[in-house]
Amino acid sequence: MTLAQRGRVWTVSGFVLLAAVYVRALAFTPTERNQGLAQKIFYVHVPAAWSAMLAMGLVGLASILYLLLKDARFDRFAAASAEVGTAFSLVMLTTGPIWARPIWGTWWTWDARLTLTLFLFFLFVGYLLLRSAVPEQGLRARYSAVLGICGLVLLPFIHLSVYLFRTLHPQPIVLKPSAPSLPNSMLITLLASFAVFTVLYIGMVMQAYALVAERDAVVA
Amino acid sequence: MGEVLRHAWIVAKKDLLLEFRSRTALVSATVFTALVLTVFNFGRDPTAVATIDLAPSILWVTFTFAAMLALNRAFQLELENQALEGLLVAPISRTSLYWAKFFANCAFVAVVEAIGLPLFVLFFDVPVGGVLLPLVGVIALATLGFVAVGTLFSAMVIRTRFAELMLPVLLLPFFIPPLIGAVQVTARLLEARPLSEVSGWLRLLAAYDIVFLTLATLLFPSTVME
Amino acid sequence: MVRAEDLRHSYGNVWALDGITFALVPGQTLVLFGPNGAGKTTLLKVLAGLIRPAGGRASVEGGARAVGWISHHSLLYGQLTVRENLLFWAALYDVPRRVSAARAADLLARLGLEDRMDLPVRVLSRGQAQRVSIARALMHDPHVLLLDEPFTGLDLAAAAEFRGLLRELAGGRIIVLATHNVDEGVELATDIAFQSRGRFVHFAPRAGRGPSDIADAYREAVRDG
Prior knowledge:
The complex is a heterotrimer of chains A (220), B (226) and C (225).
Chain A: H1 3-28, H2 42-69, H3 72-104, H4 112-133, H5 137-168, H6 184-219
Chain B: H1 2-22, H2 24-42, H3 51-72, H4 76-79, H5 83-89, H6 94-124, H7 132-157, H8 163-190, H9 199-224
Helix pairs in contact in B: 1-6, 2-3, 2-6, 3-6, 3-7, 3-8, 6-7, 6-9, 7-8, 7-9, 8-9
Chain C: E1 2-11, E2 14-24, E3 29-33, H1 40-47, E4 55-60, E5 67-71, H2 82-92, H3 97-110, H4 126-138, E6 144-148, H5 156-170, E7 174-179, E8 191-196, E9 199-205, H6 211-224
Parallel strand pairs in C: 3-7, 3-8, 5-6, 6-7
Antiparallel strand pairs in C: 1-2, 1-4, 8-9
Helix pairs in contact in C: 2-3, 2-4
């Protein structure tokens, strides 16, 4: 089986498992008292955020390894991870407002976590744009590795500065973004969803990696 | 270290001389700054928003754009006749080269800001008299961070397609933390609040400068060395 | 002494250097022929320390300080005068100011450009700029000269003049000159190499061969290689 085919198997399994998680979420997990059905979107939103963060973390890690070892596989992996990460951060950015509208009463708010995810998205897009603007493979790999590492270092600064920003200007939000502690059944559903999204991430990265490798082979 | 700085100074001096010779970049950046300030004056409703409330944002959005404009040209002038190749063959460390560009960019942006700040005070009638020194300090603190990252990125984008568009897209997310910090501190200063209120922000700005200057120094060789 | 041991480097799946080994001593001028994309520039850049090769070792006695680099780009700043350019590059090689001022005057006199000293480089003709770029590369009196397609953009007269200059410079130095044009530079060579797909398919002393002999050998070697 080629890498792309294995990736498809993982991805399809991921989606099947996601369906299973949603059956569990809708039919067998209690509905949250305050938020009602809207809360169910959390089982996509939070794990998608997790996968996007994972993607960025691995882009940064692969970038460091690339600069140290100069092995093109790390570069391809970083590219694949960034592409998948972009998709996940888009999921996160679309599901967030859908949830926020009924719960917070607004589509968008400059909450620390929301802002962080928005910048995660900007970083992914910038990373992919830079890649597309450098035709030569070795140069592209070095440039994107530099950007990947800087992006990873930037995230804590964004989080900290947005957090400080918010504590100085408290906004009238009634509900906290997440419940302090989840009942067990919800927690299990959420954890299952985390696992499923990790599977999806792996499957998609495998497919994206195969595509990137193919592109590199054609160009060279 | 002494040698690194000495070489950096030789290259930076050459950059500043080049800048002084043509003056086009400096003049355009300064005029641009004045124009952005003017745009801000008309891009608000004077009856709804008091100038003083908007002043910190105006100052920093203007400086952010001006810095961006300045950074685009740092490595541009090495592309003429491929002089960059000569610099890389010469027995100077890559670190010297990064620091040279960093110095020259800081000087360039500082000149633009030095002209922009009085214009800002004049146009918006901002009372800076008592807080001029700390204000200049904050400007320096934030500018160092901007320029540290910007110098690194400008070394990369000059060899990409659409360099002029690419730099802002890559750089603006990185300007956010120093921008937020600088606006907050400037606002407190203009309200004549004590600096102790913003010590968290000052620490953040300083940390950003140190982290990114170090990171950029470490990463820069990878942008020029195959 | 310039030494290359089993140099390897690739761009994607294309070998720019595929096991190149040679050694040169002062007095030798190696002229390196090869089609575009054969890896000539990569080889020069490895020798100049611009590229870290993926495999093998390259060494130049005296390191970066001993290398003079000339390409078809002049590496000069158009807004600066000839003098400012030369003094700037000399300063990067830690040449004392008094020495570099005298050397700049001397080199420009030899190149017939003494009256251009205080003109900005951008007003010079292509040939004049190329001559200044030679002076630039000689300001620190390098033992090794690396030239990457130095004839590109020069008209016939300027190219001939340039060859004359190089012949003068060759004594006691090591020169490596890369060009894709077999008609250029043969008579400068003490040694000839043909590079194709990252390999030396021919590497031998010139032994009195003229341009047409070399051109024939080149066609054969590059076709077979």
